[in-house]
Amino acid sequence: YSNPTCAPGRNTIVHLFEWKWSDIAQECERFLGPNGFCGVQISPPNENRLVSNRPWWERYQPVSYKLITRSGNEDQLRDMVNRCNKVNVRIYADAVINHMTGVGGSGTGTAGSHWDGDSLSYPGVPFSAWDFNSGSECHSSDMNIHDYNNAEEVRNCRLVSLADLKLSKNYVRDEIAGYMNHLINIGVAGFRVDAAKHMWPGDLRSLFGKLTNLNSGVFGSGVKPFIFQEVIDMGSEPISASEYIGIGRVTNFIFGAKLGQVFRNENKASYLHNWGEAWNMPNSNDVVVFIDNHDNQRGHGGGGGPITHFEPRPYKLATTFMLAHPYGFTRLMSSYNFDRSNTDQGPPHHGDTINDVTINGDQTCGNGWTCEHRWRQMYNMVAFRNVVMGQNLQHWWDNGNYQIAFGRGNKGFIVMNMDSHSLDQTLQTGLPAGTYCDVISGNYDGSSCSGNEIQVGNDGNAHFSIGNTSDNPMIAIHVGAKK
Length: 483
Ligand code: ARE
Ligand code: CA
Description:
This protein is of the alpha/beta class. Helix content is 20%, strand content 20%. The chain has an eight-stranded parallel beta barrel with strand order 1-2-3-8-9-10-11-12, surrounded by six helices. A four-stranded antiparallel sheet has the order 17-18-19-24, with helices on one face. The longest helix is centred in the middle third of the chain and has 17 residues.
């Protein structure tokens, strides 16, 4: 389950957080397909609890596995999956399977199903009280998780009072597998598994064993879904991400935290010369990496103050480094604007309807959508990653401080200046001689560069000069953008 199942030559996914299915379908066709993205992580597609003021997090409180949410209904989901697959962009669903709604209270969900969090009744599945962990499995005083040093409590008790499903039960696994197989049948390529830390690895292994292969009409025969499990492991708790590796990939939260320090100038960039496993991170092929996610960009999930789009300069630098470097399977975050004093704020909306994503003349988004993935530095580096994939990191250079450069075989080269003085260097790029477009300052249209040009000589050397005050203090060149 660790193979991302991207179409050939594609290597990065983007989390289109809280987008509508109809907007994602268009985005696949007009932008993600043409720009070489592998796929989209979508918000949870199943029925959720209706919470007043519609916070984004209501979608992490399942009511049933009917495919009706504010993002759209099942027909719209199918249309999105088909249209995206057609342009070689895959859909990865966020699977919230550890729990149902918060306990206490009752109501209806986004598909109209009734739920009762007092009696633990979810007739839309159906689940009833016997399908949840009880006092026999959970031994904390109030059934909630308090002690992350107690693995049994973390897995058998309630995460922020969410009704905790009993995944040791075959019936529960069958219902969840039925839901995931329904999505597989529609044509999704895989899953982000929410709150995987709160489920026993053995239960997940059995559950995933019930999954069918991907839709052969799209993927060919015998292809397993891609699974990446959300396990927040900063190295300080008894539950470690390594317990989940082998079942699928895991989310690597150390990655964004460590790069955050570097690109905020709290830890020398020159130390990145051995970035990767040597930094006490899992093997490259076992992880999904990212700079921030929908939780930590708003202080949820332990927060940790990652760099986000609110700090564009270090954010673009950190993302560029991530995409240029061989380590991990890369995910971009695509946000909506929100007031940082209100961490509940849902997506741009009118009434109960999520607003359309509009596209401005310069390719950026309007209507309250941030669309980091449409910033030139981001999408051009997604293309860079596709061009250099499989090439070794070589020709590392640094000034012992905050200026660094490295190449990827004879395909691409990057130079970054986070220092407080300018960079002026002739460096060995490993690239064939010629004129290259700097894909940070501009685009290549097939014949000319709209930004700066870099000359690589017959000896592979090129001269780079980067000021320290620019908004984008870096240069990236690759053989796909050579004049
Ligand atoms: C909401 C309300 C709660 C209320 C609850 C039930 O905020 O006050 O009790 O509803 O009514 C998201 C939001 C939550 C929200 C929830 C349900 O973040 O605020 O609760 O949706 O609507 C832990 C988990 C990790 C989890 C983070 C948030 O280990 O799996 O907490 N992340 C995922 C998603 C979230 C989502 C959920 C799980 C739930 O990405 O978006 O929650 O589906 C240490 C530990 C971490 C721990 C962290 C925070 O760092 O190492 O493991 O993360 O502390 O406690
Ligand atoms: Ca659990």
